[in-house]
Amino acid sequence: MNNVAPKLSNEEYEANFAELHPPFTSPAATAEANRCLYCFDSPCMKACPTHIDVSTFIKKITTGNMKGSAKTILSSNWIALTCAKACPVNVLCEGACVYNAKGEEPIQIGRLQRYVVDWYVEKGMPPLFTPAPKNGKSVGIIGAGPSGLACAAELALMGYDVVIYEAREIPGGLDTHGIAPYKMKQQDSLNEVKMVQKLGVVIRTGIRIGSTMSIEELEKKHDAIFLGVGLQSATRLKIPGEELNGVTDALTFIEKVTTRKWNSVDVGKRVAVIGAGNTAIDAATEAKRLGAEKVIMIYRRSEKEMPAYKFEFELAKKDGVEFQFLTVPKNILGSKSPLGNGKVEAIECLKVELGEPDNEGRRKPKPIPGSEFQIPVDMVITSVGENIDETFLARIPNLKTQNGVVVVNSETLQATNPKYFAGGDCISGGKEVVNAAADGKRAAHGIDSFIFSSGKRAD
Amino acid sequence: MVDLSTNCGGIKSPNPFWLASAPPTNSGYQVCKAFEAGWGGAVWKTIGAPVMNVVNRYAAIDYNGQKIIGLNNIELISDRSIEINLKEIAETKKLWPDRAVVASLMVESDRQTWHDIVKRTIDSGADGIELNYGCPHGMSERGMGSAVGQVPEYCSMITEWVTEVSTIPVIVKLTPNVTDIRYPGRAAKKGGADAISLINTINTIMGVNLDTFEIEPSRGGKGGHGGYAGPAVKPIALHMVSEIARDPEINLPISAIGGVSNWRDALEFILLGSTSVQVCTAAMHYGFRIIEDIIDGLTNWMEEKGFTSLEQVRGKALPNISSFGEMDLLYKAVAHIDEKKCIQCNLCYIACEDTAHQCIDLLPKNGKKQPTVREADCVGCRLCYIVCPVENCITMIQKENSGTPKTWNELVQELPQPMTLEDLRKFQHEHGIEIH
Ligand SMILES: Cc1cc2nc3c(=O)[nH]c(=O)nc-3n(C[C@H](O)[C@H](O)[C@H](O)COP(=O)(O)OP(=O)(O)OC[C@H]3O[C@@H](n4cnc5c(N)ncnc54)[C@H](O)[C@@H]3O)c2cc1C
Ligand SMILES: Cc1cc2nc3c(=O)[nH]c(=O)nc-3n(C[C@H](O)[C@H](O)[C@H](O)COP(=O)(O)O)c2cc1C
Ligand code: SF4
Ligand code: SF4
Fold first, then answer.
1. What's the structural domain count of chain B?
2. CA A2 distance to own-chain centroid
3. Does residue B180 contact residue B152 with C-beta atoms inside 8 Å?
4. What fold is seen in the domain A20-122?
5. Is B345 one of the annotated active-site residues of the chain?
6. CA–CA separation, B133 and A214 (whole Å)
7. pTM above the 0.90 mark?
8. Which residue of A has its CA nearest to B288?
9. What is the ipTM metric for this complex?
10. Of B321, B285, B313, B383, which is closest to residue B58 (Cα–Cα)?
11. pLDDT of B231-244, one tens digit each?
12. Structural domain that includes position B388
């Protein structure tokens, strides 16, 4: 890299990555919980994709029944700790809280949920549920991300033998390797993994299905298979200069940051981030917090069309991230080097204007001829979308994908090959952790009725 | 495994939680729905003499953003006929044989009338009868309800009329609108009651409208006293329950009522000797669903403490109730302010300075004023502890006793009688206690 931003002191790093939403103290949690109206048929519960019985778990905080509260939460959502810290609550549960209609601050549901699950983790995660007797059936799960973990936990409770195969050495999927460190720590995700293991789920890490273990072998071992593989390769920009030293995709960069070894992550003095989704915002704010002097987000549409949540956008602005709207990258310019790839020196962009709406109603950007300009940068982070692993999925017989997602029945989440079920980002194209958690649970019930569909089931 | 099953004076239920006789138990539809939610029993809305209600029956006190700290009502007994109530009791009992269905009764003070309704109630299949000697409005003016509960002789007479014909357990429900709850309690015992329930509602006027001078709530310009219930009455109910529980002349199972909103409240009553616990206001505020956490919370608490049945818990706090004369006069505690937790609101200072014993100083610290207790002057009254808004910031720390324990009762024996202030001062001085 041309100009690496100077490293910060440990204190500075820790301050920059301090939790955005620190935990409640016990009196503060009780006071906030007592503010909850204990609504009947509450909108918060409906707005949560996993339908956590919010008013009930909050009521239990007020009566000091913490165990009952934890059970209420986990019985709906196995990924409740990550969700409590990472859910976009203002568009989900808190956005639906009736206090909004009263013109008052909504109940801080995410923080209360965290308060309860933190308590449960501190208590050493004592068993809350008794798994059903073994039913002699076995399910293989590909991917130890939130969808895979949720599916595994639910199946284990129903009496299944469950094995998760995870390509990486550390389980947790993007909960471990993707979520911004000022929202949560890797350890939170790993605690959640432990919770699932305590139900008897076996997690085999370092096994990539399709290479370390064949699909045929996997199929032989299990009665059904769940695909919780998420999204893989980053979409390339397909412009000259992408091979230059200093160009990286957002996921690779973010994964390094989640390890919390701040010192070992190089960030440019001046950084361009291409894209304006939530991942792009994360990459930009994380670059800034690592010490980049200038971070510019480059997006081909205007602020109005930005796919990122408003609160994420606000956070980036507060961090001092700059925005170049209606701009497309044309060329990444760098030094010539006889020894290999040169280093990024600037990015050449074009201004665009928005034309007629396309068939999805989004106005298509049209380059303005002759509007080229250069921005001097040391690092380019690309974040223009992730895709499913088509090569891998194509090897599963009769498994249909369409529009970049695995095709499933929306009720059971069964794929076109009946032995396979799928959930999470690989069927949504990229949503939230809480959606993945809900999918995993739903698929578990789909699998259960698939395996025992002919009424063989004892209960 | 925790077993919550309960037998209150011969009335059995899978858990000790019953709905109290009130609007939540008006009909078979409601009681069945409550049983579905998990309630262990229900005392049917009082049936008996013909009545007619007025509108604006309820009023409540909200406090600092919390709704219904106390609930006041002037509702009478059931305005539905005896026939239809008994028919629905019979149907409900058939559908829910394991739950306790208790009929609450109130008729005019006539022996034959009581005999008739008791017999009809037994025929309905109800598990027990509760005698409503508590209703403090409307019925009392007609010689029923608290008019009975306030006169021990009436109380035992009517109870006797009931028990002489009843083949099912009889609970007497007491009114708190008396000076000493033990007298009506003893009267119930004398009349042959199998159990005592308390408290019914407390006489109250809820407020005055500052513009119209009407009493809140106004019924066409007229208002008056009603019966008070809900969280605000719990301490009163706890005391009255403990009085009945500790009275050796009574010695009957208790069904406690008054301000129970959650499992913690219910458990306090059980620790003071109650066998079953009844709930009205909390159900009226949130619906029958509150029973889930009441059962879950109590079960988790018992599991954590290693209890398996309610017998192991019942009455466990009773030995700790004592009279003033039995408390150690030389037990010494002083207030201590944790400076790390203190937020310098200085509420403790002004409370002590203006209304207690002037023993907190505001000492300069980092440009602010730090309230600091002068321990030597602190009388340990606990006012500062109560006003402090920060949890665990002020604690009452026990100091070494200035001598072996000495109670008032002992002191009375030791000092010449009648006791003089001089003698008392001498005793205090000997033990390092100075009054200023
Ligand atoms: C940078 C970033 C930040 C985000 N921040 C948030 C946030 O703040 N809040 C929020 O709610 N959501 C956030 N999300 C979205 C959220 O992380 C995802 O929606 C969620 O993790 C999807 O879960 P999943 O189980 O489908 O897949 P993933 O979490 O992607 O897990 C898939 C797992 O499958 C494994 N795998 C893949 N192929 C194979 C194979 N062939 N064999 C074995 N294992 C395989 C992968 O190694 C991976 O561990 C963020 C996403 C990103 C990228
Ligand atoms: C609206 C209302 C109506 C009531 N009606 C009766 C009744 O008919 N018979 C009776 O014995 N008690 C009646 N009560 C008293 C309750 O059964 C109970 O004793 C009292 O409300 C205290 O309990 P709580 O604090 O849980 O509400 C009534 C209470 C209320 C609030
Ligand atoms: S899981 Fe997320 S959306 Fe659901 S209640 Fe918890 S914080 Fe809200
Ligand atoms: S909507 Fe808000 S107030 Fe109502 S139950 Fe949910 S969190 Fe509580």
1. 2
2. 31
3. no
4. Fumarate Reductase Iron-sulfur Protein; Chain B, domain 2 (1.10.1060)
5. no
6. 79
7. yes
8. A40
9. 0.89
10. B285
11. 999 999 999 999 99
12. 324-430
